[in-house]
Amino acid sequence: MTRKTTPDPVRSPDGLKLVITVVNREKTEYYIDLIQSCGANMQLTAPAHGTAKTEVLDVLGLNDDGKTVIFSVISADRAPALIETLGKRFGSIKNGKGIAFSVPFTGMIGVLAYRFLADKREDKRFL
Question: Where are the beta strands (DSSP E) in 11-87?
Fold first, then answer.
């Protein structure tokens, strides 16, 4: 009896990372442009709120304008530079503080989608 084997899935030479950035809502457009300039081809945003209660914010004289969570997909080799760039900007821009971290993509289906997200649209190895 011959046993059927399935071929190994094609592995991408470059991994992808999901970079999650949380910033003040008023700085959303600035950070979207910054992240895109670092090589992210896809970004999604979601409105968010801080965790401090309004009573605490009133006592401290702060207002809660809300936050934005930016989900960005970038090639793994560009992610460290993006995180470093974001860290520098968080410390140097008025009301521009935030947090950012990355998590690896562990799997993906679709060669064209991978090529777009990894910014390898011209790479003919994945046709």
Answer: 16-24, 42-48, 67-75
Query: Order of strands across the sheet with 98-104?
Result: 42-48, 67-75, 16-24, 98-104
With beta carbons less than 8 A apart as the criterion, state whether 28 and 47 touch.
no
Q: Could you name the CATH architecture of 16-106?
A: 2-Layer Sandwich (3.30)
Q: Which two tokens stand for residue 31?
A: 């950070």
Q: For every one of its 127 residues, what pLDDT tens digit does the chain have, with 9 covering 90 and above?
A: 566 665 555 555 568 899 999 999 999 999 999 999 998 988 999 998 766 666 666 665 556 668 899 999 998 889 999 999 999 999 898 888 899 999 998 777 777 777 777 777 665 554 4
Q: What residue ranges do the domains of the chain occupy?
A: 16-106
Predicted TM-score (pTM) above 0.70: yes
Helix 79-92 vs helix 28-37: angle between axes, to the nearest 10 degrees? 150
Nearest to 25 by CA among 8, 41, 46: 46
**Cα(68)–Cα(32) distance, rounded to whole angstroms?**
11
Residue 79 in tokens: 């992610």
